[in-house]
Structure formats: C-alpha cells, structure tokens
Amino acid sequence: MSKTENAALALGNKSKFHEFVDSFGLPRLIIAGFLLVLFIMAPIVGADLPTQITNTINRFSWNAVLVLAMVPMVHSGCGLNFGLPLGIISGLLGATMSIQFGFTGPMSFVMAIVIATPFALIFGGGYGWLLNKIKGGEMMIATYVGFSSVSFMCMMWLLLPYSSPTMVWGLSGKGLRTTISLEGFYDKVLANFLQINIGNLSIPVGSLAFFALLAFLMWAFLHTKTGTAMTAVGSNPAFARASGINIDKMRLLSVVMSTWLAAVGILVYEQGFGFIQLYMAPFYMALPAVSAILIGGASVNKASITNVIIGTFLFQGIVTMTPTVMNSMIHMDMSEVIRIVVSNGMILYALTRKTEGAK
Amino acid sequence: MMNNNTPLLEMRNIKKEFFGNQVLTDINFTLDAGQVLGLAGENGAGKSTLMKLLFGMDVIRETGGYGGDVLINGEKVNFATPFDALNAGIGMVHQEFSLIPGFTATENILLNREPKKRNIVSEIFGDRLDTLDYKEMNQRSAQAIDKMGVKIDANMVISDMPVGHKQFTEIARELSKDQLKLLILDEPTAVLTEKEAEALLDSIRGLAAKGISVIFITHRLHEILTVCDKVVIMRDGYVVKDVPARETDVADITKWMVGRNIQSSAQTESKIDPNAKTILSIQHLWVDMPGETVRNVSLDIKEGEILGIGGLAGQGKLGIPNGVMGLYEAGGKVIFDGKEIPLNSPRVCLDASLAFVSEDRRGVGLLLDETLEWNVAFSAMQIQNKFLKKYLGGLITWRDEKAIHDVTQKYIDELMIKCTSSLQKAKELSGGNQQKVCLAKAFALEPKFLFVSEPTRGIDVGAKSLVLEALKKFNRERGVTVVMISSELEELRITCDRIAIVSGGKIAGILPATESSEKFGMLMVSQVK
User: Fold this and answer.
1) So what's the pLDDT on residue A331?
2) Contact by Cβ (8 Å): A67, A308
C-alpha cells in the first residue's frame, strides 16, 4: 500500500471518527467514558462493584419516569419542561392525601396516583394555557412557574388541614413535616415486586417494569395520529397549522401529559427513596431531569425514549459512582460538585446548540 | 457642473452571480449630477441587487463580490460597507422603513449624527456622554424637511405618523447629510396615497434642481415618465434599454420589461370552456397579509381549468390563496362547490377538499427536520385519516408505516424527486426537489381544488419545467381545478388557461393566456380604482 493510500485511509478513518462523534454527541461520549472509568476504578479502590451496580440501577428506576416527563413537551415544541415542579406538586398532593385518607400498603400508591391525576390535569391545563400565551419564551416562563408553584406550596403545606399523625409536626399537631417516612405505606412497593437478588446484586424488576410500561405507552402514543401531529407541531408549527392542526390544543395536551408524568414520576421516586420530601424539595428535581435527557442525546426540540434511557443511566450512574470512587481515592466528597457541574453544563451546552440549529 | 464631462455615477460591465446563478450581466449606464434616473423592470430583473451592490451591502460581499467597476466622479470605488457608501455621498431609502417608532422625526433624522454640547460629565468620561443640542437639531431637521418641499411635523413620534410621513422622514434623514450627492429611492411610492406620491415626485424634482442625483425605482411607470430624465429598463439581469424619458411611453416600457417573443411561448392547447360551472367563487375578499394586502377581490374559477394569478410583488396576489386557506386573517365570502366556506380556518378548507402549496416552502410547506415520508403523508393522514391502522375498534389509530412508505415512493418516482431514500430529511434536498415534495404532499390529499403559490420560485430551469408539467398533468388527467400564483408571467402563460392580474389588492383584469404580453403588462401597472 502506497503512502498516499495510507494517508487517504487515515483521513477516511478520521472523518468516520468525526461522524461518529457528531452522531453520538461529544458530551455524551465524554460522560460515558467517565462513567466507564468509574466502573473500572471501583474494584481497584476497594468498592464493591455489584453493590455499585445495584445502586445505579436503583437510582435509574427512581428517576426514569421524571425524565420521561420531558418527552411530550419537547415533541410539541414547548422545549424542556423546567416547570417540572408543578407536576411534582400534583404528585405530592396525591401522596399526602392518600396517606391522610388512611390508605396503606400498595393501595396507598395506587390511590396516590388516582388522587394526583385530577390535580395534574388542572395544573397542567393552566400551565399549558399560559405557555400558549407566550410562545417562544416557554423555557424561561416554565422556570418561573416551577419556582413560584414551589414557593406557594411551601405556605400551603403548613396551612392545609392535614391531620394524619404520621405526617404533621409532632408538637403543634398541624402543618406537614419536611420529610415523611413511607414505611407502612408504599415504601418500595414497586421495587420489591419480583425483585431479583444475586449475591450483592439486586434488581428492582417492578420499578423497571413500571417505567417500561409508561415508556412503551409514550412510544406508542408518538406513533398514533395525535402523536404524529404533536411531533409535527414541534417540528414546524406553521406547517402543522397549514395542515389543519390545532396547534394550541396539541401543545396543551403535551403539557398536561408532561405534568401528569411528573406527578407519577415523583411517586415512583418516593417509593424507591422511602420518603416524601416537601417544601423546597421539588425545586431541585427539574434540573437533573432536564440534564439527564440532554445527556441522553435529546435536543431542545427532539427527544426519544432511547434518549431518556441512556441519559438517565449515564446521569444517575455518575451521581452514584462518583462519591464512592472519589471518596475512596481522595477522601473528599466531590460528588455534589460534579453533579452540579455536569447538570448545569449539559443544560448550557444544549441551549447553545439550540441557537446553532435555529439559524 | 453641467459642462463637466465626468458623470456622477458610472457603472461599467457590472456582473454578479449568486451561487452560480447569473443575476446581473454587463450592466452599463451613467448618471449625471442633478439627473433623475428611473429604474424599471419586473420582479427578479436585478434592480434591487444592483442597488445593494452600489450601496455596499454585506450580502454582496458575502456571496463573492461582483465583477466590473463602479465609478463615482470618475474614480473607481469599492464600498466594503454601507458606511463607506454614505461617506461617499450616497443615500438610500429602502422599501421597508428603518425608523425607530418611539422617537420623533427630528431624532430619527439626526440619529447618531446629533449636534452635541459638552457638559461636566462628558468632560470627564468622553464625548459619548455629551448632551444633545435640541435647538440645533430642530434647525437641522427643519432644513432637511424644507429641502423636500413638504410639510411634516418634526416633533411627531414616528409611530403616530401616517405611512407617507414616515417615508418622508426617511428621505429627510438622507437629505440632512451634507455630503449627499446621490439618493436611491427603492419603491418609495408603493405605500403612499396618490396625493402623497404626488408630493414626493415634486420633492424629487426639487432635489434634482439642487444638483442631487436620484435613482428612482418604481413599478408605477407613469411616475417614471413624469419625473425622470432618463429611464433604464432591466430584464433578467441585463439592461435592455437606456432611453431619455421624453422619448418613450408606458406601452414601450412595458414591452421592454416583459420582453420575449410573444407567440412562441404561449399556451397552445389552452381550453376555455364557457359552459363550465363555477367551482370556486370568491366575493369581496380582503386579506390582511403583511406586504401582500388584498383589498377587494372578486373572482370566479371554473371547474377543471388552470387559472393563473399574476401581478407585481406586493400587489396582493399571494394574499388570495393564503386568505382563502385561512392562513392570514381575511374577510369576504368564498363559495366552493355550492357551499360557503368559512374563512380563517385552515381545517375546514382542507376538509372541503381544497389544498394549498405555499410559496413559503421552508417556512410553511415542509417539515424540514422530518423524513420525506412524513412530509408527503402528514396532511393526508391528519385530514383524511389515510395511512392509518385502527385497533380496538378505532380507539387507537396507528401510523401505517408501510402505506406511508408506498405512497412516498410512488410520488418520488412520479415526480422524479432526487433523494437517497424516502427516509431522507426534507432539509437535505435541493430547492427544486423540496418543491416537488410540497406538490406530492398536496397530491396525496387528492384534492378537488389546488392552490399553488409561486411553485417555481428559487428553483432551477430543469426542475421548473418538471414542476409545471406535473401540475398540468394533475389538472388534465384527474380533472383537478388548479389556481397557480406566480410572479413570472411567461410561466403562467405556458401553463394556464386564463390569467388574472392583480394590482393594488384588486383584480385588474382576466385575459386568456394567449393574449399578448403587452396587454398583461398594461394590466400589471394599471391603477385599479
């Protein structure tokens, strides 16, 4: 083989490599590489690998539904749902009321979803109506909707007439506590269902199956006539309008879907985590979900179920793995710092790419 | 000045191409100081490109510069930016207003060139903090307005002004520049009432008398004849005629503008069936489409014909389909097949078996980020429930990917769309092929009536004839009534049976396609009362 041929081949490989990086996304590649290094490092620094994998899968199962909640709004062109806390609040209302009304065990989980649903529909409807008024600035307004709903509910958690002794402050007997244990209610109802245990490795099959069911329904919805229309609205609203689609209705539907998924998502999170967290907690749920789907390769106006799965796995993998590995290595807790750098960095990256695409 | 032999402006062999399309070829003309030059030509003849070139606009440089020389007072110049052109004494008033709505006329006229007074703060922090000298500003703007010879209130805020006064403010801004030698007016009268236009023409004469040269672009040919010293007529990027204004008339100019051999290109097999029933009747339609306002259009379209709608840009021809199909706010009455169609509702029109291929291919016509399959099948799927599989007794409607693939493939073959596969993204196709996809989308709806707006805009010659052939075939073989809107008269004449010409938001007249170009030209520039 002559020298020039070699050079051409090298060039070809190089462009192929570039193509691969382009299609897979540089940040996704870096993070996947980083996670791989963490998994390799874990046994070396003395952490138990099966336990680590179990933790990663667990955290994946807690968070995946919240990330899935991003999909409908991205499809309809409403952008990333920074207003996720609104849906989470619906879920929290469902959770607390289910306990208040005296449901226990698995039934309390079912009832939490049932009670949360009307709240999610109403809040989502109002939120969607608002977003239809401010087309083009959705993500900014969504952020503030999230902020203000959390602050409003901080007051309401104190004022609403809850009386269940498991939830209210011990001394005064009124107002909800910041953290409520779910023991005896729906703690790990999904996770323990059909759980597989092999040595230190355990897989929460129930939680994963529940997510798989929702993800399948979402995938199926996107293949229906309405789902197709929703994607078209996000892809080119003018085209959709000229094809006789009611754009506002589609956007509203997507926001309601996203809000309901967020409500269910927080309930799934709670059953895995074992606690209900109120007050400022919903505030911190939106950014990890947004960055997870972005790491998964979604953009501001394109997202798939695969993006959700890959993104949640990578993001939660890093969040779980870094403390163990880093702590063993340098005896310093870096995980929080890395989590913040990764999540905010991803969002920033996605927003810069949006302007690039929209020129 | 007049005995000086060097002209103020001379263009020598100007050439310009955009991405391989020759838009200007060997442009030569001269303009003396104090002369008014009228520049006429159809849309796309190259007038605007020529003026952009003269004014040093970025777009010219970004697309590879130009060939030939521009000489001002006998010296070769090459403006890198509009600022250089301004410094050389060239002023330009664009078709669109570039004024700040919340500022007064005076402030707009002297923007960034205000006379200033020094104050304590600016002594310390530099001249950006000087105070404005309003007294001096008022004087200067009053002078500029006086130069025009019209009365406008210099202290009125722009947003409160009638359109005409805005136009005058723009001109006053150019006049307030002391070095101004050449003023370019790009269709300044298009937005003016007749009286305002009259005043503007007067002030142009006044300017010329003061030694300022003017290049005046307009579609109203009689204005050129009243005010200009010489007329330059452009067609397809060439200067076809350069004559003194007093030696010509409207009919001549029209003929030169439209040009081409009249007999050869006309539709040979045009069929006009006087007994055909009216399928679509438009009565007193108005459409509020920015830049293409329709004022009062009444039009009857016969079943099975191809009707062309032509006219100059901005006269409202594009507003007609957009209004009927509900994409822009409209009023009036539209009766299709004996039933009245409510306006402002795209869905109802589509349900009634009307279809529309938009002139805004990339904006409205296509899902650029989606596959060809989606683009072709989407409308038919949403409107007519085609390409869907039903499960659970119609509760779930599932996309039928195979049917979608088949129909897309059928149109890819039929219209010879060049693509790697039916799963290619629409944005990756060339303009001509994108246009074919838009047609395929409309054909897939199998409509009874089709509006096609500017089907050949921005596509190459080969694709053009294919698109026109496809339309004709669609009409002849399936009996679909087609209304085609186009800026290119020749294209209408080879495709259509009858052609309606729109002027000033109204129908100026309807003629068989076999009529001579001059007659169409006369209609285009006529004023409909």
Assistant:
1) 65
2) yes
Delimit the domains of chain A by residue range.
Answer: 61-283
Contact B351 A244 (CB under 8 A): yes
B278-353+447-525 matches B1-89+180-260 in CATH topology: yes
pLDDT tens, residue by residue, A206-230: 999 999 999 999 999 999 889 999 9
Q: Give A358's pLDDT tier (boundaries 50, 70, 90).
A: very low
CB contact A76 to B (< 8 Å): no
Domain boundary assignment for chain B: 1-89+180-260, 101-178, 278-353+447-525
CA distance A230 to chain B (A): 11
Quote the pLDDT of residue B268.
52
A residues 292-351 closer than 8 Å to B (CB):
301-302
Q: Which of B214, B210, B201, B157 is nearest to B37 (CA)?
A: B214
Predicted confidence (pLDDT) at residue A241 exceeds the cutoff of 50: yes
Contact criterion met (CB < 8 Å) for A239 and B364: yes
End-to-end CA distance of chain A, in Å? 44
Which chain B residue shows the shortest CA-CA distance from A231? B370
Residues 6+ apart with CB under 8 A from B85: B54, B55, B56, B79, B92
A245 touching chain B per CB within 8 A:
yes
pLDDT tens, B247-256? 888 888 888 8
Kindly determine whether residue B399 and residue A238, on different chains, have CB atoms separated by under 8 Å.
Answer: no
Question: Count of A–B CB contacts within 8 Å?
Answer: 71
Contact yes or no for A235 and B365 at CB 8 A: no
Residues B481/B355, Cβ–Cβ less than 8 Å: no
Are A225 and B397 in contact (CB < 8 Å)?
yes
Facing residue for B346 by CB, picked from A223, A231, A241 = A241
Task: State the pairing for strand pair B388-391/B396-399.
Answer: antiparallel
The angle at the Cα of A121, spanning A115 to A126, to the nearest 5 degrees, equals 135
Q: What is the pLDDT of residues A104-155, one digit of tens each?
A: 888 999 999 999 999 999 999 999 999 999 888 888 888 899 989 999 999 9
Provide, rounded to the nearest whole percent, the portion of chain B with pLDDT above 70.
93
Contact A238 B363 (CB under 8 A): yes
- Fold classification of B1-89+180-260 (topology level): Rossmann fold (3.40.50)
pLDDT of residue B271: 63
Residue of A nearest to B398 (CA): A224
pLDDT band at A356 (very low <50, low <70, confident <90, very high): very low
**Shortest CA distance to B476 belongs to which of B264, B267, B324, B282?**
B267
| CA atoms in the 13 A half-sphere facing the CB of A330 | 7
| Residue of B378, B388, B398 lying closest to A243 (CB–CB) | B378
Position A249 scores a pLDDT of 93
CATH number of B278-353+447-525: 3.40.50.300
Asked whether the whole model's pTM tops 0.80, one would answer no
Q: Cβ–Cβ of A231/B381 closer than 8 Å?
A: no
Q: Do B386 and B408 form a contact (C-beta atoms < 8 A)?
A: no
Handedness of CA A85, A88, A92, A94 (dihedral sign): positive
